[in-house]
Amino acid sequence: MRKKIIAGNWKMFKDLRETEDLVRGLTSRLTFDLKGNQVIICPPFTSLALASKLIEGKPVELGAQNMHPEDEGAFTGEVSPNMLKSVGCSYVILGHSERRQYFGETNESINKKAKKAIASGLTPIVCVGELLEEREKGITEQVVGTQVRGCLKDVPEAEVERLILAYEPVWAIGTGKTATPQQAQAVHQFIRKTLGQLYNWTVAEKVVIQYGGSVKPENAAELLKQPDIDGALVGGACLKPDSFVAIIQSCL
Q1: For 5-249, CATH number?
Q2: How far apart are CA 97 and CA 87, in angstroms?
Q3: Is residue 247 classed as helix, strand or coil in its secondary structure?
């Protein structure tokens, strides 16, 4: 049975003082048995080192929100996978819709980053999802299928099991709108079927597929009950300890 993985994407929020408050608030509330499930926080780059120290010995793992696909070089403003590992990261979010929308990331560039992350010992959380107009046109599966295939191009079977996929309908990110549990499950099932076609069903059954898009304590339990939803990539609700912990408890 696949474990649930709850990851919090802090986006561009929290300075160092606020980071300390948030992490301490979170870890002080995580006093219950996670039952094999995982919790990840993904602060901005400036807070990674501090967050890493604050979660030592706690049931929380660390992820970043992006990375460059090269080990080093003249890439002003970028951060390499080795730099992320050096501050304690085990995970990295790749291809979030905001990166696609505002920074021109493509399936090809995300694929390059995903392969580099895996080679560097990081677990990539690769995001896919359709725009509102694409859902209204009835081409969700076409769009998401193209993204999955593009982002996983040439990723070997032995390595894809280490990768996490996150389905985030773009129309539900930061809008307060959420896909119904049935809508989300249908796309998650399609993604797993696509993985089965790309690899095989044994591999497809092992890959963790998170849901992201206005996940809140009020809707988390119903979403996480769906058979192909293996956790959540949480945005705004992860910025308050009480709401993030309530979402974590929803998967127990």
Answers
A1: 3.20.20.70
A2: 25
A3: helix
User: Which stretches within the chain are classed as H helix?
Assistant: 16-29, 48-54, 81-86, 97-103, 107-119, 132-136, 140-151, 157-160, 181-198, 201-206, 217-224, 241-249
First to last CA, the chain: 14
Residues 40 and 91 sit within 8 Å (Cβ to Cβ): yes
In this prediction, the residues of the chain whose per-residue pLDDT falls under 50 are none
CA distance linking residue 99 with residue 66, whole number of Å: 9
Q: What is the C-alpha to C-alpha distance for residues 230 and 239, in angstroms, rounded to an integer?
A: 21
CA atoms of 5 and 184, how far apart (whole Å): 16
Domain ranges of the chain: 5-249
104: left (phi over 0), alpha (psi -120 to 50) or beta: left
**Of 111, 182, 170, nearest in space to 140 by CA:** 170
pLDDT tens-place string over residues 42-85? 999 999 999 999 999 999 999 999 999 999 999 999 999 999 99
Catalytic residue set: 96, 168
pLDDT digits (tens, 9 = 90+) for 179-189: 899 999 999 99
- Which residues make beta-bridge pairs with 233? 7
Is the whole model's pTM more than 0.70, yes or no?
Answer: yes
CB 205 within 8 Å of CB 192: yes
